[in-house]
UniProtKB/TrEMBL annotation:
Biological-process GO terms, alphabetical: carbohydrate metabolic process; D-glycero-D-manno-heptose 7-phosphate biosynthetic process
Identification of the protein by name: Phosphoheptose isomerase
One Pfam family from the record: SIS_2
Organism placement in taxonomy: Bacteria, Pseudomonadati, Thermodesulfobacteriota, Desulfobacteria, Desulfobacterales
Protein family per UniProt: Belongs to the SIS family. GmhA subfamily.
Gene: gmhA
Length: 189
């Protein structure tokens, strides 16, 4: 088991290091865009399915509460949390509309959407991203190596890995970096 533990750690570190080293400039640009949006009074809307839904909640909490520093709350909403909204949309329309309708209700031009899908093809995520683009919402797309999301996103963060776990670990590392540097940029940390 020890070898498997160490191999897993090494693989995770390698995927993250490769991703960060090839996306550094894009990460900087995304942080500037997000911090400018928040400074203007816009918000971050985060969404995804399964583990990515949990990541969406985690990321929104870091922005609303705090990450590394004491500072005022930043406007962020995870579109994965309201079970009454999600189930009513899923029941009355379809599961493909659960993020779309929330984005249409809550999104405004100048907002930023962080769409997360390991495959890059989750139909409900893609449908919401297309709507976001038409509404003037900037899209950060966190995905694996394939799929439509990387073609649609303004900031495409496609992790070049095949293991879902490695992709998700990289997504949360990226989100932590974005949150950390956004609050530093906004609050001179």
């Amino acid at each position: 088991m020890k070898k498997h533990i160490l191999d897993t750690l090494e693989e995770s570190l390698l995927v993250k290091k490769r991703f960060i080293s090839t996306h550094t400039e894009l990460i900087e640009q995304a942080i500037i865009a997000l911090s400018d949006a928040l400074e203007r009074g816009n918000k971050l809307l985060v969404f995804g399915n399964g583990g990515s839904a949990a990541d969406a909640q985690h990321i929104a909490a870091e922005f609303i509460n705090r990450f590394q520093m004491e500072r005022p709350p930043l406007a962020a909403i995870a579109l994965t949390c309201d079970t009454s909204v999600i189930t009513s949309i899923g029941n009355d329309y379809s599961f493909e509309d659960i993020f779309l309708k929330q984005l249409q209700a809550l999104g405004r031009p100048g907002d930023v959407a962080m769409a997360i899908t390991t495959s890059g093809n989750s139909p409900n995520v893609i449908k919401a991203v297309k709507a976001a683009k038409s509404m003037g919402v900037t899209v950060m797309g966190l995905s694996g190596p394939g799929g439509q999301l990387k073609e649609l996103a303004d900031f495409a963060f496609a992790v070049d890995a095949t293991a879902t776990a490695r992709i998700q670990e990289t997504h949360i590392t990226l989100a932590h970096i974005i949150c950390d540097l956004t609050e530093r940029r906004l609050f001179n940390g």
